[in-house]
Structure formats: C-alpha cells, structure tokens
C-alpha cells in the first residue's frame, strides 16, 4: 500500500511542537491570529506561499525541510540542492577555501549537516598522525566519529570526558532541532563507544566561556578553542548546511607549536 501523504497541517504541527510552541506562541511570532493558524493546521484555510515561508521562518525550519511544506500546500519547491562542485556554488567554495587557508597555521575544517568532512586546511594533517584506525580517515570522514572513536583521536584527548560531553551535547541539540534520523543514528553510535573512566576537569580559565580541546601530539599538548562559521543568507540547501569549524590556540604554548608544525 502507498503511504498516505502528510498534510500541511501535520508538517506545521510537528515543527511547532518540536520548537515547543503553542498555536498562540506561533501566531504571536508570525503576527497573525491564532484562529487563522488553527484553520491552516486543520486544513480549513490554505496559506499563500509567502505566508507559509513566513511561518517556516518563525519556526526556524531548515531549508531542506521547507520544500516538503511547500509541496504539501500545493506549491513548487523553492530551494535547490546542488553538489558542492556545481559551478553555481563555485563562489561559495572559493570563500570556504579562503577561510580555511587564511586560518593557517591554525587548524580549520568545513563540515556538512551530518558532520562529514568537506574540506580541511593544511594544519589539520599533523594532528591526525596518531589515529590508529586509518579507515576512520577514508572518505567520507565523519569528524565526530574520528574524534570519539577509541581507535581515533579519543585516546589522545586529555580532557576526553569533557570534550565528549560537549560534542554529544551539540549533536543532541542538532537532532532535537531537526529530527534528522541520520543524526540520531550517529548519536547512538557515539554513545556506544567506551566512556572515559574518570570525569574530565572543567578548566577554570575557560569555564562558562568555551570548552577547550586538549590534544596530546608528538609536538606537545595542544589546547584549542573553536568557533563555528556559517553562510549568512544561503538560499541553496547544500550551502545552508555547511559550517566551518575554526580552532584557535588557547595559550601561547599551543600557538608556538602550531606555528612550528606549519614550518615542517
């Protein structure tokens, strides 16, 4: 049997509940009446395309999930999804490469919504030399798996308990916000890895500001903090799901080590 197509009301209701918003909350955010929203969810009223996109924006629905909303309402999809090597995305790819290259000698990577490695700068390679299972470095590389796998970077992360909790917390938040089943599968995989026997210490210099990654390397102990950069106004699904993770030295010793590695 062919599964019944989900109605627009079902889609809207799911996203509203995922955002923990009542009909009144969303109506106030969207500056419409609760009665109007109720009619849209029940199917008694059909919104215009602009109204539907407005509601999706208020609900912070990812571009990937806005197309099904449009289709459910009888509209054509608005947002395209192109491969990163598509000529139309060449300016964006150049921008990513410039950001990655410009961050050297400090490490930086670009990842997609599932934490698959898209690109990395030259400062990343020296940090991966201790990875025991080289299959973890075979594309497609998942950076969360690489970080927490017992044959990956995990044995070399001094504050593994703290860093693991940070990454799993981020992944949980992503899954909660998107409902993406691939993220749920990844989360379950990471949770199945052996947990550190001792709790990591919270570092007073960064407590409440950032969680550092403390990575033991042949060159010495690296203490890194990270930032995430995304495109500000994407209208392409692929581009909207890309993020650049840039790592900065948390102390002068780390900065000196990274600079020396770039000269080798």
TrEMBL record:
InterPro entries: Cro/C1-type_HTH, Lambda_DNA-bd_dom_sf, MLTR_LBD. GO terms for molecular function: DNA binding. PROSITE patterns: HTH_CROC1 (PS50943). Residues 12-66 form the HTH cro/C1-type domain. SMART domains: HTH_XRE (SM00530). It comes from the Bacteria. This is Helix-turn-helix transcriptional regulator. It comes from Rhizobium changzhiense. The lineage of its organism: Bacteria, Pseudomonadati, Pseudomonadota, Alphaproteobacteria, Hyphomicrobiales.
């Amino acid at each position: 049997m062919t599964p019944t197509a989900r109605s627009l009301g079902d889609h809207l209701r799911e996203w509203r509940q995922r955002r923990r918003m009542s009909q009144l909350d969303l109506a106030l955010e969207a500056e419409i009446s609760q009665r109007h929203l109720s009619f849209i969810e029940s199917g008694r009223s059909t919104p215009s395309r602009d109204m539907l996109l407005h509601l999706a924006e208020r609900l912070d629905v990812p571009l990937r999930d806005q197309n099904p909303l449009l289709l459910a309402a009888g509209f054509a999809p608005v947002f395209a999804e192109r491969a990163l090597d598509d000529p139309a995305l060449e300016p964006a790819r150049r921008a990513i490469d410039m950001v990655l290259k410009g961050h050297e000698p400090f490490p930086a990577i670009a990842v997609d919504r599932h934490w698959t490695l898209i690109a990395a700068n030259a400062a990343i390679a020296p940090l991966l030399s201790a990875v025991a299972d080289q299959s973890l470095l075979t594309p497609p590389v998942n950076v969360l798996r690489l970080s927490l796998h017992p044959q990956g970077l995990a044995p070399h992360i001094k504050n593994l308990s703290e860093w693991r909790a940070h990454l799993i917390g981020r992944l949980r938040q992503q899954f909660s916000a998107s409902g993406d089943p691939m993220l749920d599968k990844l989360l379950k995989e990471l949770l199945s890895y052996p947990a550190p026997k001792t709790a990591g210490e919270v570092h007073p210099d960064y407590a409440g500001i950032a969680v550092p990654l403390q990575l033991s390397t042949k060159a010495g102990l690296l203490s890194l903090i990270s930032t995430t950069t995304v495109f500000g106004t994407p209208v392409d699904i692929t581009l909207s799901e890309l993020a650049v993770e840039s790592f900065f030295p948390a102390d002068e010793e780390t900065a000196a080590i990274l600079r020396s590695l770039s000269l080798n």
